[in-house]
Amino acid sequence: MSKLYSDWLKIDLHIHTDFSRKTKNNDYKGVFFIDSLYNKLKEQDVSIFSLTDHNIINIDAYKEYYEKYNSATDPLLLAGVELDILGSSTTYHSLIIFNCNDYDGLKAIHDSLEEKYAKKNCDVFKRILTFDDIISAFDELDYFFIPHAGNTSSIIDAFKGDIAAAQKMLILLQSPMEKVQEKRRQIYNEHFDVRLTEAFRKKEDFAYLEFSDNHNIEKYPCRHMGDQGDHEFYYIKGSKNYETLRLSFIDPKSRIKTTQEFQEIKNPRDYLRTLNIKGNTLLTDKNLNFSPHLNVIIGGRSSGKSLMMDILKRSIGWCKIFCVK
After folding, report:
1. Where is the PHP domain (predicted)?
2. Is 2 contained in some domain?
3. Could you tell me which of 39, 68, 38 has the C-alpha nearest to residue 51?
4. Which residues contact 59 (CB under 8 A, 6 or more apart)?
5. Which of 63, 84, 107, 248 has the highest CB neighbour number within 10 Å of its CB?
6. pTM, to two decimals
7. d(Cα 259, Cα 232) in Å, to the nearest integer?
8. Residues linked to residue 50 through DSSP beta bridges, in sequence order
9. Does any domain span residue 313?
């Protein structure tokens, strides 16, 4: 049964399959099986993930997963790909994560991407798109643009001659950045603040994330091919759906946590779990379930907000008296 309230979810939007070998030499280690992936994700309690091969989509792997997918119990697989994109000075890598978690939608994305490469007559090992290519290929689709920003395939390096263009693009697209070490984030924030008006500076509302970039499912959750240690997961606050990503990227300070930050909040204090209203002459019988985190009561004038708070106050007081007796 799915939870009735928002919770902290483990995510990993950067996982490769052996299809990455088709576009990059020696880019995957070991053997890839969907069943192995599924078991590893369940072991790690991952809630949302994506398969993001280099400049290609493993449509068969997606199809196999979707055919077995149970929305209530299984991790949500969002359609994705990792693209080589031409910047002002060199290429950079970016994840594209689509608002799509079904085979038919994924097939349309796959076909649009392959058609774009065919029109550009790209060699399979030299598949490079411009950002305009991406916009035209997926012009009617909803997706997130998540560029690398802290390694040799960084968007920062790719726009050294025109860093303002990269900053404006990321701000307008509400894009998070991947592969940025904690100690470098303040530097990035200072640069991005230059593009913002005074009113929007220092809000700490730019999202940074780390994913596994796994290239060896047999050693998951290892980073890359297993030679860089295990990945430390990030958590996002919400439900198991695409919109949770959107909310997290808009409000990262309260909705995105590192493993260490999550450990500090994962064991909440005692809290009121349920309010059972029964036999009240003014109210319909109702069970209200509360989150162990933040709860917000919203309603118009005379909708019952104050009445509910009064019931809560009286119930808690009665409980204390009852317990003491």
Report:
1. 12-122
2. no
3. 38
4. 106, 107, 110
5. 248
6. 0.84
7. 6
8. 78
9. yes
For residue 292, whether the previous peptide bond is cis, meaning omega lies within 30 degrees of 0, is: no
According to DSSP, the residues that pair with 78 across neighbouring strands are: 50
Question: Do residue 124 and residue 201 come from a single domain?
Answer: yes
Question: Euclidean distance between the first and final Cα of the chain, in Å?
Answer: 36
Q: How many CA atoms lie within 13 A of 311 on its CB side?
A: 18
Token reading at 138? 């997926």
CA 111 to the chain's CA centroid? 24
Reading the block at residue 232, the tokens are: 């430390």
Predicted local confidence at residue 173, as pLDDT? 74
Which residue intervals of 15-102 are DSSP H helices? Answer: 34-43, 59-68
Amino acid at 273: R
Q: Going from the first residue of the chain to its last (325 residues), give the mean pLDDT of each consecutive group of 10, the final group possibly shorter.
A: 76 97 93 96 97 98 97 96 94 96 97 97 96 92 91 84 79 79 68 66 78 95 88 95 95 92 77 78 79 80 79 65 39
- The per-residue pLDDT for 307 is 79
Q: Quickly tell me which residue has 């960084």 as its tokens.
A: 154
Which residue has tokens 């031409």? 86
Q: Nearest CA to 48 among 263, 234, 265?
A: 234
| CA dist., res. 320 & res. 325, Å (int) | 9
Dist. CA 53–CA 313, nearest whole Å: 54
- Residue range(s) defining the domain that contains residue 248: 7-265
Q: Are residues 98 and 179 in the same domain?
A: yes
Q: Is residue 33 domain-shared with residue 164, that is, in the same domain?
A: yes
Q: Are 12 and 211 in contact (CB under 8 A)?
A: yes
Separation CA 215–CA 170 (nearest Å): 27
Identity of the amino acid at 195: R
Domain presence at residue 249: yes
- Residue 304 and residue 180 in one domain: no
